[in-house]
Amino acid sequence: MDKPRISLIIPAYNEEKYLGDCLRSAINNSNGNFFEIIVIDNNSKDRTKQVAETFPGVKVVLETKQGLTSARQGGYRVATGDILAYVDADSHAPAGWAERIAREFANDPKLAVLSGPYYYYNILWWQKILVKLWYFAALPVYWSTGYMATGGNFAIRKSVLDKMGGFDENIEFYGEDTDIARRAHKFGKVKFSLSFVMPTSGRRFSGQGYFKTAYTYFINFTSEVLFKKPVSKEHTDIR
């Protein structure tokens, strides 16, 4: 099949510290596979916009409605690619990541979502082991439900998002990735692959505590699967 056009979308709120490295890795490791790169500035009070504008060809779009899902929705509204790929502003897209998106969606017209795990590059070694165990433990749930996704490491077919009506902006933070995967599964295959890895910062573990963070992710993942809505209504902003 024809190679799909991929729009890379990076929601960003006060991300001047991380965004430059995120964009550099995305551009240097994309091998020309991104049709466009869009930074969604979600009312940043720091130099997020100025950092993004130092990268030629990167489009910066202001989304005034605060919140992660609103920023994702803002990217969806302006993107013109066939596939929308989302990463967090503190992530480092590795070599081969963009090529894999292009290949998998070109080879499987029924594929709706491609996602995979995080690799937290700045947490303790024992925490990294527990994160790996978490993903392995979650696999049986994925096999039984047919869907699972990681919010800062997924690509979705734009036509599927059209059918979904975009993102659910009523969800502030926790559970939004499972909500995306669950609703997309109605319109196609949701593939979660342990080899489709995204290196990202573990700042939430450091700022909020490992076990509290892991527990909060777990209960919201479970609630989305069982009750189709997250438990947590609010979250702590950590920068």
Helix content: 40-55%
Structurally, the number of domains stands at: 1
Major β-sheet profile: 7 strands, mixed
H and E string: EHEHEHEHEEHEHHEEHH
> If you average the pLDDT, what whole number results?
94
| Beginning-to-end CA distance, first to last residue | 42 Å
Might you state the CATH topology name? Spore Coat Polysaccharide Biosynthesis Protein SpsA, Chain A
**Gross morphology:** globular
Q: Note the beta-strand portion.
A: 15-25%
Structural class: alpha/beta
C-alpha Rg (nearest Å): 16 Å
Strand order of the largest sheet: 3-2-1-4-7-5-8
The CATH homologous superfamily name equals: Spore Coat Polysaccharide Biosynthesis Protein SpsA, Chain A
Number of helices: 9
Low-confidence stretches: none
CATH architecture: Alpha-Beta Complex
* CATH level 1 class label: Alpha Beta
